[in-house]
Every structure is written in C-alpha cells, then in structure tokens.
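Homework help thread (please don't just give me the answer)

Our assignment gives two proteins as sequence + structure token strings and asks us to describe the second one. The first is just a warm-up. Here they are:
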Amino acid sequence: MTNRDELHRRRFALRNPYAFIEQLEGAQEPGQELADSALRVRRYLYQNPYAYLEELEAFGNDRRASPRANSFEEIEKLVIRLQQRLWNNRVRVSGGEIDPIEVLDVAAAASLIGFDFALTDDFGAYSDGFKYMVAGIIDRSKKLIRVSGEMSGEKRRFTAAHELGHAILHPHLEALHRDKPLDGSFFQRDRLELEADKFATYFLMPSKLVRRAFKTRFKAEHFSLNEATSFALDREPWIAVANRYDTLRKLSRRIASATHFNGEQRYSLAEYFGVSIGAMAIRIEELGLISR
C-alpha cells in the first residue's frame, strides 16, 4: 500500500477528507497541488475521501493536464451538494426562516471552498485596436475570484457563478482573465466554457426552485398558450398573443419577464432569481415548462 493509499484509508476511517492534509501535501509531486486542491473541494462537497479517485489517477505525472469532460448531470450533482452545504451553514447561523433564494450567494460559496471573492472597480478598460472591459479574473494560486462591479447585476452574478464553476470543475486552469461579461443568455462553444455556464445556470436557477416559483406565478406546472392563458398573460385574445410570440423563444422571454398574470402582480422570474431575461428564458425551455 502506498503512502497516499494509507492516507485515504485513515481519512475514511476518521470521516474527515482533510485529515493529515499536511502529510498529503508534503508528498506531492511537482505541478500536483492545483489539481489536488480542486479534487479536495469535490470530495468535501460529497463528504467522500474516495470521490474522483479515478480522475486523480488519470492525471498521471502531469497533474495539471485537462481532466475528462464533466457531464451535465455530474455538474448539477456538485452544485446541489454545494447548495446543501450553503443551506446548512445558513440555517446554523440564522436559526430562523430563510428564503432559499438567499442561499444562492457566490461569495458564500467561494468561501466554503476556500476561495476569496471580491467585487472591484479597478480593472479598467484595455485597448488592442478597440476597448474592452475586464469582466473577471480567477487566480487559483491565490484562491481568488474577482469580478467587475461595473457590470449590471445579472451579468455580475452570472459571471461570478461561471468563475466559481471553473474553480470547482477545472483544476488545470491556474488563472483565467475574462474580457466579456456573461449573463447566461447564450452558451459558449468551448467545452470548458459550456461546463462553467451550466454550473452557473444550475447554481443561480436550481430546478426545484424554478419549478416552484413558476407554479406560484402561473398556477400550473406547465404553461401552454390558449384562450385563458393568453388573456391572463396579456389581456388579449389568443390569436393576437400567439402571433406576437410566434416562436418558443419569444414566448419563453415573455414568461421570464412577466410581472402580472391573471391580475396578480409579482417579481418576474428573471428578477426573482437575479438573472437576465435571456438566461431565465433558456432555463424555462430546458425544464420543459412551456409550449406554444
């Protein structure tokens, strides 16, 4: 049995994935620390010192190499574990009634995995033939996520959650400088960016909470355009509403931004979850909540 195997065995016996951490780090190979720190985060979320053992072995001698792709199902499981820990910590501190939406705090989540999070206005703009704004920076070696405070609230939240996703999912990314703010209204083509977008989507718009908020506002688990729902939504006949929202995306954006339905007034789904209308519309479609 290797020293590392023995440490895993002793951690499992103690039910503590961080036991003997100094011994583990003392035995690290060159370039191993960044990847192992991210794996420890995942093991912490699962409370399982053996989680991702096959991924750790897959890194081989170069622990900074890109790991296997993360499935969307696995990303959502990690997010749910993180949210559960945020919820448990919040309940212990407050002891009172809590709106679950308040738990979806990127700064608190970053702290939970050992990262500092900060909003800053000193990134400035840079020119390379044209000017652009720096949206955020993640520095794994300093365990720091910084996001521009000059962005709109929804872009700030999605960009921050996206960077948090990189911190947890992609141990080989030592530093990342983002020039374009994200609001979740489209997905990046690159696989790593898509995974981080999915992480942000699951973190800011959890399936269970979205379904609950949707049902509260629209009095059903699924919305379909008909005479009754068209009038409740826009106070107009079905044919006029159907012509206005002649694609699923147009309808989903209307549902995401609706503040009135059947005479009742509420925060729109986009406002309630603190995301852009585009991001909320995509999430509504992903969850199959509407049809034309």
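The one we have to describe:
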Amino acid sequence: MKVAVYTIAKNEASFVERWYNSAKDADSIHILDTGSDDKTVTIARDLGIDVMQRKFDPWRFDVARNAALQMVPADVDYCISLDMDEVLLPGWREELERMHAQGVTRPRYKYTWSWVKPGVPGLQYGGDKIHSRHNYYWKHPVHEVITCNGTEIQGWCGLEIHHFPDHLKSRGSYFPLLELAVREDPDDDRNAHYLAREYYYKGLLDEAEAEFKRHLNLPSARWAAERAQSCRYLFKITGDIGWLYEAVNEDSTRREARVELAQALHDRGDWWACLQHAVAAMSITERPLDYLTEAFAWGSRPYDLAAIACHKLGLHSQAMEYGLHALRLDPYDDRLAANIRFYERAAA
C-alpha cells in the first residue's frame, strides 16, 4: 500500500515542521504553495517535501486542491488531504492498511475541529478527506468537498486527525466565494445552509431568513440534522417558537433542538413543557459524530433547565437530583452551586 499526503499552503512557515512530522510515514508528501512570501517553501524543501508553486486568479479552493491532487503519483492507493493546521495522530498508517485490506476507497475517521482547552476536545465529527487516488475530485469554490465520480466504499477506522486553527488568518474571501458556489449550484443543500448561516452571522437577517427557508424547500435537503438547524436559526431570526417545535419534528433523535426548545420554554415560564423537553433531551445518550453536534446540549444545560423547572413546580427532590447532576458536569459553575443551596432551603 502506498499513501500520499497533499495540501495547499500559503504562509504556513510556523506549521510546516509539525505538519510534516505527523505525516512523515507517508510514501510521498506534496505541497502546492499558492503564493507564500515567508519561508514556507524553503522549510518544506529542506525537509524533503515535494513542493510546487502556483498562483490562482481568480482564487477557488476546488481548483487549487485539484491541482495539488495532480501532484500525487498515479500508483498511490490512498491520498490524505491534510491542511497545514492539522496533524495526523500516531498509528494512522496501520489503520489505513486495515482499510485497504477491506477494499475501502474512502476511510472515515474522528476529526477534532476545536478545543475547549488544551487537551480537551470541543467539536468532533467524522472526517472524510482521505480517498483513493483515482475517481475523486474537489468541488465548490469554497467549503469544497471531495467528490467521487465512480464506485465508492466507505469504512470507519481508528485514525484521528486534530485541527489547531490559525485564528490570525483572514477568511474574508469566503463569503463571496460561498455566494458564487450557490449561484453555480443552487440545488446544493449544504451550501444553501452555509450561505444562510453566513447571512445570519453578518446581520443580514432578511437574506438569512429567505435562504434558510429556501434550504428547507430544496429536494436535496434530506439530512434531518441540518434541516433542524435551519429551523433553529429561523427561531433566532423571527422569535417564533413554532420553529423550535418544527426543529424537533425534523430530527427528534438529537439533543440540540430539544435543549434549545426547553430553554425557550424556560424563558416563557412554561415549566411543565420545559421539564418535558429537558428530560426528553437527557434521554438521548448517543452523541452524533458530526459538525452539527453542539457542546451546550451535552453538558449541564438540560439538567439545569430540568432542575429549575422542577423547583418552580414544587418538585423539590427532583430539582435537587437534576441540579446535582448539572453541577457534576460543570463543577466550577458558581451559579449551579448556588442553585443547590437554594434547592436545599426550598426542600427544608
């Protein structure tokens, strides 16, 4: 089995050596430099990395990544697209050997995108940027995805990739490229949802509302989790709690919509309904491995909401039980600790 690691890079001098050390068990390593004016190219070549230089005008991520993929020799079995702010964890090659023996063309793996603090993962989801050498290409000018134009066999393995984002790097070009992506492929549900979110983040609420509703009406928008998130954003924009009930209807298997609904009911003083949805959220114990999983739903929040609702309803022993569970999940939260003392006095 032959494995190649490839990437695009611009001004990544501070990351090259760490990136290389995580990938050096590959049979070949390739960087397409897209215009660095620091020492990225020099450092990479000194490490023995295959480097090409090319500028793209107009800039598109898919075009650049496809050019980088063309640097990979034709006899490679697996290609790992590894950005310069990512690292492969040790043992990755053995995992790919196992996938290769099973005939897998697209190995899936655990990807840690963010960190609560050093050593404590934040957002984790299933990565998909390892693929066979042939019949794959990159699509979309931004939020690009690796796409198969042949037969694909996916399989999960124990390989992990960790992401350590460079927060100093500008993402200013992403928004116009995302608008371009939607113009080029208006039926693509993923980019419709992403564009609606960008409108929301930029405060363009009318545009966001229209695009979220368009996303929900797309025939291709079949992923329940993403549909539910569009509904949740529509609640944020309109204040109509009906959108949160719709989010739960779209995907009742996840915590996020239920916890957000419980919070909204808490804010309205609807204590029985708040308790009902908080408890329903707690009953969901399998945390999905995708980018829509949000930490607030898997921490103390649903237990805290249930405790407050029980207290308001005069269910003091249940309030104490849920409150203690919330505190165990977040032991340094002063408000949760103070609530326990409050529940104790109420039950006395």
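TA reply:
I won't write it for you, but here's a hint about the kind of observation we're looking for: The first helix runs from residue 16 to 23.
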